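Subject: for your reference before the review

Hello V.,

The reviewers asked for a structural picture of the protein, and I figured it would be easier to keep everything in one thread rather than splitting it across files. Below is the amino acid sequence we used in the manuscript, unchanged from the supplementary table.
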Amino acid sequence: MFRDDKGYGFNMYANFLTHFPPIEVVAYILYLCIIVHAIYALVLTIQNRKSRPVKYYAQNEAPATWQSKNMGLLGSILLLFIVIHMSDFWFAYKYSHKVPYIEYRTNLSTGEMTSVPYNAGAGDFEKAIFDTTDPKTGDPYEVVRVKDLHFRVADSFSNPLYDLFYVIAMVAVAFHLVHGFQSAFQTLGWTHRKYTPVVQFVGKWFFGFIIPVGFALMPIIYYLQSLSK
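And here is what came back from the structure prediction:
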């Protein structure tokens, strides 16, 4: 996403992810796990409220993190984000004609790349790569025609409201991942005085900071770039 290559790397990456069978299998398993996870959380919430319809008079003062007390709110934000994100990008890329095509032409002698919109017309396809020669100069070229998902991403990230929601969702992701990562070890009984601080460190900085910040930077940078155009 951050490479200055006219979206070439991202478009090739998106094409690979959606057409490599092992990744597609893992992706659909992940989608199923998300649905099961959401339904399971909803069922548990309903059962808890039915078992205790009236709140306790005395509040529980046991030490607990903010994210553990607000997993319902965080999970709801994430579920909404996943639905919007998947429909806007994944579904549009796979099952609709909302994503345009682009043609990249790379001069194999100089390495210079140019790009122009491409009209697939009746020859609808996912990707085409072939070599050709410029009839005027005789220079060899590599031509790549592929769906331009990068254009749709950049267009979506030019909307400040969309970007704001995306950043809020990444904050929810941070809290959700930190809590989930640490809780997984506790659930499995893999807690130890020596190793638990390492788990907490990895959960806090890798899942709670690096990953969410990296994704949150995408809409921010693309929006700033859209203002300069």
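For the response letter, the relevant points are probably these. The radius of gyration is 23 Å. The chain is about 60% helix and 10% strand.

Happy to draft the paragraph if you're swamped.

O.
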